[in-house]
Each structure stands twice: as C-alpha cells, then as structure tokens.
Amino acid sequence: MNAAADRNDQRSKPRPPLRDHVATSIRRYLGDLNGCGTENLYEIALRELEIPLFVEVLSHCEGNQSRAAAMLGIHRATLRKKLREYGLEQ
C-alpha cells in the first residue's frame, strides 16, 4: 500500500476524542498516587496539558505565534504570556 492510500485509510477510521485520552491519563495519574492525595490538581492538569499543546502547535505552525494563537483560539498576547510562564519563550 502506498503512503497516500495509508494516510487516507487512517483518516477514515474513527478516532477517540481527545477527552478520552485525557481521562485515561488522569485515571492513571490518580492511580499512581497510590492513595495519597494531591493539591492543586486543576493547576497541575492545566500545566501538563498546556505545555505540550503549545509546543506541538507552535511546531506545527513553524514557530509562528500569530498562527499558533489563531489555531488555539486565543489572543497572541495570551500565548506569549503563557509561553513566558512556562519558560517556553523562543
């Protein structure tokens, strides 16, 4: 099978929504706590999602912050602020 046909075949298969992957990761994280509690789970989860999200979207947009912000649906200034917060400035 050639590469184009393989890509078309992969696109036609239904994919689980992102929330399913997130739920699995959260479930695994909570299980790994082994009965211990955690604080600030909301902040931890947002940081753990936002960092790879920003990195991957910026990579996809070849570092163009305006395009990345548009793709994310946020203002460029918000993206720049978050990148500074996470030490991801370019």
List low-pLDDT spans: none
How do the SSEs run, as a string of H and E?
HHHHH
- Average of per-residue pLDDT values: 89
Q: What portion of the residues fall into strands of 2 or more residues? A: under 5%
For the biggest sheet, the summary is: none
Q: Structural class per helix/strand content? A: mainly alpha
- The oligomerization state is single chain
Using only C-alpha atoms, the radius of gyration works out to: 17 Å
Number of strands: 0
Q: What is the count of helical runs?
A: 5
Share of residues in helices = over 70%
Shape: flat
End-to-end gap: 40 Å
Question: How would you describe this structure to a colleague?
Answer:
It is a single chain. The protein has 90 residues and is an all-alpha fold. It has 5 helices and no strands. Helix 4 (65-72) crosses helix 5. The longest helix has 20 residues, at 41-60. The protein is flat. The model has no long low-confidence stretch (mean pLDDT 89).
Q: What does the secondary structure layout of this molecule look like, with pairings?
A:
Blueprint (H helix, E strand, L loop, with lengths): L2 H10 L5 H15 L8 H20 L4 H8 L3 H10 L5
Helix pairs in contact: 3-4, 4-5
Task: Give a brief outline of the structure.
This protein has helices spanning 3-12, 18-32, 41-60, 65-72, 76-85.
